[in-house]
Structure formats: structure tokens, C-alpha cells
Amino acid sequence: MKLRNSIADNDGLAPYMVFSNKNLLDIATHRPVSIESLSQIEGIPSARISKFGKSIITLVKDFYPKETDVSLMEKLNSSIQATYLLSKNGTQDLNAVASARSLSINTVVNHMIEAIKIGLPASLSCFGMSQEIFDVISKVIQSPPLNGDVSRLTPIKQLCPEYIEFNHIKVVIAMLSQKYGVNEIPSESDKHSPERQSFATRPDTSAIETSPSIISKENNSNKRKESSYFSQSKDAPAMKKLKSSKLFNL
Description:
- This protein is an all-alpha fold.
- Helix content is about 50%, strand content about 5%.
- Strands 1-2 form a two-stranded antiparallel sheet.
């Protein structure tokens, strides 16, 4: 508000001609850290973004250093930043984000996975996954015969219950890789060793909000298998029916 008034005074404008009150509320909610992510906020004219955008971005970076973790955000390209911020730091339903950005669910989920990989938080709820699904996949990955090997998705899928889909597996791999390190996911036999216990100080992805699971449709053609992002299975735990869109390739 102070910045808006200052800009308005300097340019001889009414404050609403810089940013409306709704614009300010949306900026506070989405906390854009790039011009592109600012431009994704509905209702801000491109001319105002061009003229006043840099000042707003600087203010957001200064005011929300801890919440947005600017140093991590800057490792992402501007399009992924926009997706992550519209997800309200990994808590917003991704169908809404895809609609707001006019992107496919496939693209939005991949953006979120990239954010997870560099250490930005994301709840299972934004993917529609339950804690149960996370735990099932995690146990399969860390138990024999895989013992932490995540180099291929198919062997993991074959060892999971039928309701587990490739999209779930990809999200869990990203979370485990961020927690333990790429190619360092421990097996059940060694994850409790003194060496592995040093990871206890890292973010615990199991302590995140849960919600109904996303289940995708599997393509059974002779081509490489793909799973759609959202669908339902009668064998799965209670799940929320969402849109379907192709996502994971084998």
C-alpha cells in the first residue's frame, strides 16, 4: 500500500491507477517474484506491469524472503515460478492452477515436481494424494527387491497395489530424492543406520496434509504406457474424481 501511494505521488496518479486494492490483495496472496509470475495475476494490465512491475517484484522479494524462499525460487524458470506461486506454495488444487494458467495438468504437475526437487515445499493434497498412497509407494521403493532403486518406474508399479499409478510414483520419487538426495534413497535395511539418521534434520515429507488420491487411467496399447493424471479406481482408498490428462511415460 505504501509503495503504491509513493508511486502514485511521484507520477501524479490516483493510487487505484497504479494497482487496485484487489490487485494488491492478489499480489500479497501469490507473491510473484518475476515479471512473468506477476503477469499471471488476473486483472493487472500489461502496461502497469511494464511500468511498475519491477518495483512490486523487489518489494515482494524483500518482504517475503522466508515464506517464498527467493533463493530457491530463482533456480526455477519464470514459468515454473508462476505455477508454484499460483499453487499457493504447493497447497492449491492443481486443476485450478492449470485452468488459471491455461496449461495442461501434465505441464503443471511437472512444474511442481521441479519445485519439489530443488527443495520447495508441496503438500500431497495439491496432487490429490493421500498419506496412505505416499507410504505404500515409499515402502515399496525402500524394500527388497528395489532397495531404493528408482531408475525405472515400471518395476515400482509392478510391486505396488493396483490403485497406485505412475503419477503417484513420480511425485513420491521427487519427494524422497529431495529428502535423501538424488540416487541416495535408502533401503529399509540401511535407512536407520547412523549414517542415514543424519537426514533426520531434512524436511519430512510424510508430515504433510493429506487428501483424497489422484488415480489415473492406464493406456494398455502396445506403445509405451502412459497414465492420465486424474481418474478413479474402485480398489483405491476414498478418492476425489478430477479431470483426466496424460502425464507419465515409461
